[in-house]
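Hi R.,

As promised on Friday, here is the backbone we talked about, encoded as C-alpha cells. Could you run it through your design pipeline when you get a chance and send me back a sequence?
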C-alpha cells in the first residue's frame, strides 16, 4: 500500500497544484470577464457552461466503467486490449447522441432565458461547445488509461498547459474587443489540443496495447454498459443538483443574477475540486484493496474518511470566516450578496466532502446501484424545491433547494449503506468525522466574537490572517485530533518529502515503520 499511497499522494499534490493554477487564473479572469462582458453576457457564459455539463451524461457511465475494468486488467494484455477498443468504439457511437443533444439545446434555447435578445448568440455558443464534446468524447478513453495507472501527473501537466494557453488567448481577444463567441472557439481549440497530447501519452504508456476493430468484445460492451448505467443515473442526478440552478435563475430571475450566484458557486466548486484533487484515485485504491480482505479494506476506508473529514472541515471553516471579505475584495461590494449563497454552499461542502470516501467505495464494490437512484431522487427534489423557493427567496431559495435534500441523502442513507457494506458500526464511523466538525465549530464560534473586517480589508491582511490561523488549526488537529493510524500513514509517506524535525513538531510523532495500511 505504501507505493500506491505515495503515487496517490504525489498525483494528488500535483492535481492540487494544477487546481491552484486554475484558481489563480479564475481569480484574475472572473472579474476581468465580468467587467469586459457585463453581468448579463457573463451570466450567459455561465449558463452555457451549465448546459454543457449535461454532455457529461452522454457517455452513459462508460468512462467510470472503463477505468475500473482497466485497473483490474493491467496485467492481462488480451483483456486490456478488449477494454480499450470496446470503450473507444462505444464512445464513438455515443458521439452521435451528443450531436442530437446539441440540436435539442439549440431548439429549446428560447425557453431557457427571459431575455429574447441573447437567443441567437446563445444558439451559436451551443453549437460550438457541443462540437467540443462530439470531437473529444471518443478520446476520453485515453484519459481513463492514464487514471487506471494512477498517472495523474501526466494529465495534470497537460491541464496546466491547456489552462495557460486558453487564458492567454482569452485575455488577448477580450482586450481587442472580440466577443463571447471567440471565447467559445478558443475553448474548443485548446480542448482538442489537450486531448491530442493525452492520447499520445496514453499510447506510449501502454506499449503492450493494440488497437483495431478485431479487439471489440460485444460481451464486454454489455458488461461496461451494465456497470456504467448506474453511473449514468448518478451523473444525471448530479446535474440536477448543481447545473440546473443556473437554468432556474436565468428563467425566473434573469442572467445578471446568474453572475451573482456563480460567484458563490465558483468558490464552492473550486473548494470541492481542491478536495477531490487531494483525495482522487480512491476508486482504484479501494478496488485493488478488495483482494487484501475485508479488514484491510475497512481500515483503509476509515483512514480516508478521517482525511476527508479533516480537509472538508478546514475548507468550510475558512470559507465561512473569510468568504465575505474575499468576495468584496475580489469582485466588489456590489456582489456581497454572494456570501449568503456561499454560506449555504459551505454546509453542502461539509456534508458532501466529509462523507466523500463512501462514493468510491460503492463503485469499487460495484454496489453503486442504490447510490445512483438516491442521487436521482435527490436531484429531482432539489429541482422541485428550487422552483418553489425561487419565487419567494430568489437565489437564496435556489441554494436551499440544493442543501435540504443533500443532508438527508448524504448523511443518512449514504452513510448507513456504506457502514452496512463494511460491517462497520455507525457510531465508529461518526466518531471519525464528528471530532473534526467539533474542532472546526469551536474555532468558528471563537472568531465570531471578533470583528474580522478591519483585519481582512486587504489581500495582505486576509492572507496573513488565514495563514496564521491555518498554522494553528493544522498544528492542533495533527497533534491532538488525528488517529494514530492516520498519523502513521502521513508521517511515513511524508518523511521523504518533509524534514523529520518538522514532522515531529506537527504530528508530535516520529517516523514509524511502514505498515500494510
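Update: got your reply. Pasting your designed sequence below so it's all in one thread:
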Amino acid at each position: 500500500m505504501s507505493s500506491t499511497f505515495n503515487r496517490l499522494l504525489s498525483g494528488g499534490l500535483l492535481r492540487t497544484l494544477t487546481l491552484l493554477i486554475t484558481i489563480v487564473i479564475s481569480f484574475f479572469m472572473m472579474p476581468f470577464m465580468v467587467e469586459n462582458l457585463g453581468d448579463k453576457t457573463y451570466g450567459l457564459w455561465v449558463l452555457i457552461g451549465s448546459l454543457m455539463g449535461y454532455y457529461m451524461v452522454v457517455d452513459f457511465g462508460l468512462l467510470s466503467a472503463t477505468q475500473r475494468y482497466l485497473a483490474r486488467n493491467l496485467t492481462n494484455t488480451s483483456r486490456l486490449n478488449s477494454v480499450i477498443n470496446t470503450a473507444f468504439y462505444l464512445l464513438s457511437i455515443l458521439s452521435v447522441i451528443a450531436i442530437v443533444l446539441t440540436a435539442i439545446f439549440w431548439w429549446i434555447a428560447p425557453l431557457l432565458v427571459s431575455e429574447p435578445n441573447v437567443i441567437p448568440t446563445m444558439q451559436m455558443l451551443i453549437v460550438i461547445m457541443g462540437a467540443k464534446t462530439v470531437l473529444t468524447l471518443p478520446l476520453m478513453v485515453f484519459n481513463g488509461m492514464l487514471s487506471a495507472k494512477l498517472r495523474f501527473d501526466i494529465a495534470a501537466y497537460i491541464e496546466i498547459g491547456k489552462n495557460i494557453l486558453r487564458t492567454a488567448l482569452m485575455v488577448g481577444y477580450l482586450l481587442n474587443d472580440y466577443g463571447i463567441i471567440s471565447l467559445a472557439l478558443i475553448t474548443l481549440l485548446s480542448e482538442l489540443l489537450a486531448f491530442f497530447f493525452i492520447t499520445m501519452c496514453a499510447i506510449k504508456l501502454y506499449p503492450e496495447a493494440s488497437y483495431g476493430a478485431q479487439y471489440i468484445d460485444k460481451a464486454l460492451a454489455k458488461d461496461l454498459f451494465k456497470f456504467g448505467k448506474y453511473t449514468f443515473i448518478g451523473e444525471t442526478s448530479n446535474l440536477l443538483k448543481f447545473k440546473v440552478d443556473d437554468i432556474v435563475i436565468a428563467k425566473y430571475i434573469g442572467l445578471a443574477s446568474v453572475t451573482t450566484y456563480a460567484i458563490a458557486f465558483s468558490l464552492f466548486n473550486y473548494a470541492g475540486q481542491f478536495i477531490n484533487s487531494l483525495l482522487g484515485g480512491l476508486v482504484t485504491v479501494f478496488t485493488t484493496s478488495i483482494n487484501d480482505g475485508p479488514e484491510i479494506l475497512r481500515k483503509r476506508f476509515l483512514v480516508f474518511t478521517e482525511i476527508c473529514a479533516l480537509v472538508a472541515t478546514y475548507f468550510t471553516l475558512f470559507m465561512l470566516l473569510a468568504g465575505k471579505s474575499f468576495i468584496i475584495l475580489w469582485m466588489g461590494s456590489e456582489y456581497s450578496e454572494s456570501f449568503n449563497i456561499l454560506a449555504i454552499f459551505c454546509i453542502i461542502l461539509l456534508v458532501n466532502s466529509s462523507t466523500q470516501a463512501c462514493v468510491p467505495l460503492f463503485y469499487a464494490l460495484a454496489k453503486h446501484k442504490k447510490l445512483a437512484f438516491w442521487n436521482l431522487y435527490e436531484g429531482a427534489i432539489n429541482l422541485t424545491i428550487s422552483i418553489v423557493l425561487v419565487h419567494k427567496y430568489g437565489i437564496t431559495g435556489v441554494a436551499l433547494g440544493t442543501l435540504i435534500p443533500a443532508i438527508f441523502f448524504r448523511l443518512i442513507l449514504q452513510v448507513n449503506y456504506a457502514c452496512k457494506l463494511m460491517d462497520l458500526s455507525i457510531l465508529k464511523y461518526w466518531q471519525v468525522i464528528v471530532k473534526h466538525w467539533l474542532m472546526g465549530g469551536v474555532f468558528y464560534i471563537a472568531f465570531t466574537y471578533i470583528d474580522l473586517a478591519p483585519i481582512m480589508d486587504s489581500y495582505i491582511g486576509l492572507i496573513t490572517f488565514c495563514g496564521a490561523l491555518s498554522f494553528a488549526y493544522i498544528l492542533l488537529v495533527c497533534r491532538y485530533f488525528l488517529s494514530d493510524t492516520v498519523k502513521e500513514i502521513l508521517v511515513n509517506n511524508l518523511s521523504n518529502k518533509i524534514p523529520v524535525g518538522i514532522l515531529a513538531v506537527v504530528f508530535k510523532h516520529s517516523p514509524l515503520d511502514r505498515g500494510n495500511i
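One thing I noticed while checking it: Residues 510-517 have pLDDT under 50 and may be disordered.

Thanks again,
M.
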